Amino acid sequence: MAVQMFRKMPFSLVYQKYMLPVSTEVFNTVLSYVKDKTNGRPLDMALDVGCGTGRYTVPLAPHFKKVLGIDISESQINVAKQNTLERNVSYMVAPAEKLPINNDSVDLVNASLAAHWFPVDEFVNEAVRVLKKNGCLAAHAFYPANEIEYKNLSHDLNEVMSKVWDTLFQHVEPSNLTREVDHMLSQYQDIYEAIPLKDKKWITDIRVKIPMSVPDIIGYIQSVCMFQMFLQKDVTGAEEFLIQTEKRFRDILGEEADSALLNVYSKHYCVLACKH
């Protein structure tokens, strides 16, 4: 299974370092929704499901009395613990389809870049079970493609990035990532439809800009699960792919290759729901 990639410590470290940073736009959307639905009451507990290395868990800490991050990967949890100083944040190894939480006890169930990995019906039913009255569910991720903007070189840079995703998609096989990729390509429409709550909303096409250097982009490619599958099947081919991709970027940028910060755009989406 593709999720086994996340159990490996080398990948967990790459994921923590290079995966796209927390989207302020999406995070603020989630937080505003929760505060609106809870009428501004003090927020006791947030549960971050599929928390990975804690990249979206830690930002929740100032807004809740306590935050619990859970993930099935012990290596991801270990990295999260190493990178968390907040005393009100804790972590646990546990699956999304069997949350180790009491009924009606959570203000927010959050799933960042993770819900597409879950058995969706089981997860959303568990989320509803643990939410308090007026508690909220948030699931968000980004579309598996990127747009690059830099001076008059955007077209050529985008051709390279498009080739990257085309190559990564070649390593999606029916036995592993097809369902997960379908969730991402639909911008979580199917996850939205699976939520058994009447009060829900689906927000798509949230455009987020991230300044990135060429090494940042190469690291980001390595943090994508599809690349890790490529690497597992063909180490030499995957490493050569990275070398050639970096060379293409550098050839386009010329003398600016070491100093340029490229505007890399990702398209995020968010599903929100409230339990009444």
Question: What would a concise description of this structure say?
Answer:
One of its GO terms (molecular function) is S-adenosylmethionine-dependent methyltransferase activity. By secondary structure, the protein is α/β, with parallel strands linked by helices.
Describe this structure in words.
The protein has helices at residues 9-18, 24-37, 74-82, 120-130, 154-169, 178-185, 189-194, 214-222, 225-233, 235-253, and strands spanning 45-49, 66-71, 89-93, 106-112, 131-142, 147-149, 199-212, 262-274. The chain is an alpha/beta fold and 276 residues long. The chain has two domains: 2-143 and 176-208 and 267-274, 3-Layer(aba) Sandwich (Rossmann fold), CATH 3.40.50; 147-171 and 216-256. Strands 1, 2, 3, 4, 5, 6, 7 and 8 form an eight-stranded mixed sheet that branches. Helix 3 links the parallel strand 2 (66-71) and strand 3. Helix 1 (9-18) runs antiparallel to helix 8 (214-222) and helix 8 (214-222) packs antiparallel against helix 10. The chain is globular and about 55 Å long. The model has no long low-confidence stretch (mean pLDDT 92).
Going by CATH, the architecture of the largest domain would be: 3-Layer(aba) Sandwich
Strand content: 15-25%
Order of helices and strands: HHEEHEEHEEHHHEHHHE
Rg over C-alpha atoms, rounded to the nearest angstrom:
19 Å
